[in-house]
Amino acid sequence: MDKIVVYIHGKGGNSGEAIHYKSLFSECDVIGLDYTAQFPWEAKEEFPLLFNSICKNYKSVEIVANSIGAFFAIHSLSNQQIENAYFISPIVNMERLITNMIHWADVTEDELKEKKEIQTTFGETLSWDYLCYVRENPITWTIPTHILYGEKDDLTSYETISKFAKQINATLTVLENGEHWFHTEEQMKFLDDWIKQSAR
Questions:
Q1: DSSP classification of residue 2
Q2: Which DSSP string do the residues of 15-74 spell out, in sequence order?
Q3: Whole-number average pLDDT of the chain
Q4: How far apart, in whole angstroms, are the C-alpha atoms of residue 39 and residue 24?
Q5: Of 119, 126, 154, 162, which is most buried by a Cβ count within 10 Å?
Q6: Domains of the chain as residue ranges with CATH
Q7: CA 180 to chain centre
């Protein structure tokens, strides 16, 4: 085959999730990106190397990226020859998400600046370096993109995702009552149908 789809998992996921997408892209090889990056500056180093080693023998490349995987892809693969991108619940405004989490944790930016890192009760570690990085490295993404978003996504507001979709000229599909994590049978069927329609 001369076509490949690279799947980029979200937090807590793994490259093996790519198997789900094989039947949706039957005329393509489908391979999961087995990465270790946890920050965008790490992804900027790691993703292009992995991507080039996987895709070097293919004429056509598409990506499916989930949640923070989409955020890492935006930061690290914007210069790659990618025909289409399919983003599922993408994190598209990390500055907004971090400032929201600072608010949820009931701390201030000044406290975070002083301590550098703060552990939260909801399982995330707030990082001053991370906040500074996303402020200093705005997103540039010109690859044709389709976005799937759950109406009740608790990490990204509709206003934020809608603004991003308009900014990059992407299609935006919203699942009514959908969550950030697509995992129920009904949600996965919606996801599969969305990919089939978008990939036409």
A1: -
A2: GGGGGGGTTTTTTSEEEE------SHHHHHHHHHHHHHHHHTT-SEEEEEEETHHHHHHH
A3: 97
A4: 30
A5: 126
A6: 3-92+142-198 (3.40.50.1820), 93-138 (no CATH)
A7: 11
Q: Which amino acid is at 114?
A: E
60: pLDDT strictly greater than 90:
yes
pLDDT digits (tens, 9 = 90+) for 127-150: 999 999 999 999 899 999 999 999
- Rg for the chain (alpha carbons), in Å? 17
Backbone angles phi, psi at 37, to 5 degrees: -55, 140
| Euclidean distance between CA atoms 171 and 14, whole angstroms | 26
**How large is the average pLDDT for residues 91-102?**
97
Which 8-state DSSP code applies to residue 180? S
Residue pair 30/16 in contact (Cβ under 8 Å)? The answer is no
Cα–Cα nearest to 97, from 175, 141, 157: 157
The candidate with the shortest Cα–Cα distance to 66, out of 16, 102, 25, is: 16
CA 132 to CA 95: how far, in whole Å? 9
Token duo for residue 151: 């109406």
**pLDDT tens-digit series, residues 64-73:** 999 999 999 9
Confidence at residue 12, expressed as pLDDT on a 0 to 100 scale: 95
What per-residue confidence (pLDDT) applies to 130?
98
């085959």: which residue's tokens?
1
- With a cut of 90, say whether residue 43 has pLDDT above it: yes
